[in-house]
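USER:
Make up one protein:

ASSISTANT:
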Amino acid sequence: MIRVFEVRVVDEDGSQLGVMRTADAMRLAQERGLDLVEVAPLASPPVARLLDFGQYKYELTKREKEAKRKQRSITFKEVRIKPKIGIGDFDTKVRRAIEFLEDGDRVKIAVTFRGRELTHPQIGRDLLDKFAEQIKEHGVVERPPLLEGKSMHISVASTHKPKVHEPTPSATAKAHARPSEEGSDEIVTALDTASEAPPAPPAPPRPEPETGSASTGV
């Protein structure tokens, strides 16, 4: 409810109707079958608009859902390599890290040491430097290699914008599902009907045994 004495009124087409008493503005809204909604309460005087409040809420909710769909949070991915990693595996790990960075994610590249490998940390440092050189066009190393426990790692920030993933076909189907009477989403799907096999013919009747005859066991 609008509690101020007067408001600046804007009609449903966006035209200025000027400043008028709130009671008169509410009467005008009722005559037009609309609602009087305060859209700028901090203005002097506050601004109120004539509109269909139900339609306004629907469009507002729709815009909020669309904005959330386009948002994508940046996640932290991890790629692990070993000190004795082969060239092929190393290249595979590099390509995987580039995929993460192209999606806009931050990546942690870690070298895990085992047993006596800890006595040669320079091997891990050289691997991480080589790795950083391979992905420098897609990310920036946030800090130099750091040995923590049995692993040494670097963190890489992406230079790409986070990608907005389009909804999958299943999500699109759910979005277009029509509501059932109970309020739950009902998705209508077409089912393939398989041709049924013809019923088997009935077995022929067994002949009645003759009167007085005796059955013999085998």
About this structure: The chain is about 30% helix and 25% strand. The first strand starts at residue 6 and ends at 10.
